[in-house]
Design a protein that fits this description.
This protein is of the alpha/beta class. It is built from 11 helices and 8 strands.
Amino acid sequence: MAVDRMPPDWPHRDRARRVASRPHNWCVVEAGEGPVVLLLHGAGGSGHSFRHLIPLLTPHFRVVVPDLPGQGFTRSGARSRYGIDHMAEDLAQLCTAMNIAPVAVIGHSAGAALALRLAELLTLRAVVGINAALGAFDGAAGVMFPILAKVLAVTPFIPHVVSRLWGNAATVGKLLATTGSPLDEAGQAQYLTLVKDPAHVDGTLGMMAQWRLESVMPRLLEQAVPVLLIASTGDKAVPARISREAAKQLPNGQYAEIASLGHLVHEEAAEQVASLILPWLMARLQA
């Protein structure tokens, strides 16, 4: 089924389809063959953020890339289910609906925390976090819309205001620059498409407003699943020390660092990210 509202030139549009899995109507990109690896984007983004990484993974894996509820092109069926527990439960249900059993999850930013939470619900053999946001949203940690999240519940018109005020190239360029990843013209245009969509803004703000890691994070850092945390030293949203310290706490955690690049390192330098992920992941799956 064609995905409505998606621009004709949207990355991997030809591989996108809708999957109905309660309570949401998901937009999912699938590519490649082999063991299934789930890719989870961060708050304010969509599955498109993995556009350069997908072709580097597909020679080895079948990648499944959903837009998170309310964001990108996934239609939310329950605005109350944007917290980490509910979102993990709904993603696990999506996997059941698609009849897939991921062997690994790769998550960016808040998607990395979500990947760790999913490890409690799915039988995973590995988790990879890219600039993992393993804490409360602060500053630009959500990539976009850091200021207005808390007022969403009492001012439901805010998403339309944000979309109208911030939905221009200059503002999106400034927002991306605050992450340390200014991106190229095409990358900026894709985020502009998202910001101009009030539904996407609503989903992002809703996720940030409901996101609570304080109670679950200590437990997630005790998991035995092998975890690779990749951080870039130029990240202005989530400092590299967050991943470095978390890797030390994880029983089977490892840390890898990329110099200089920003929060969206997987969009800036997918080859460098893949060169860290692929050998590590292949070794864990062959063990």
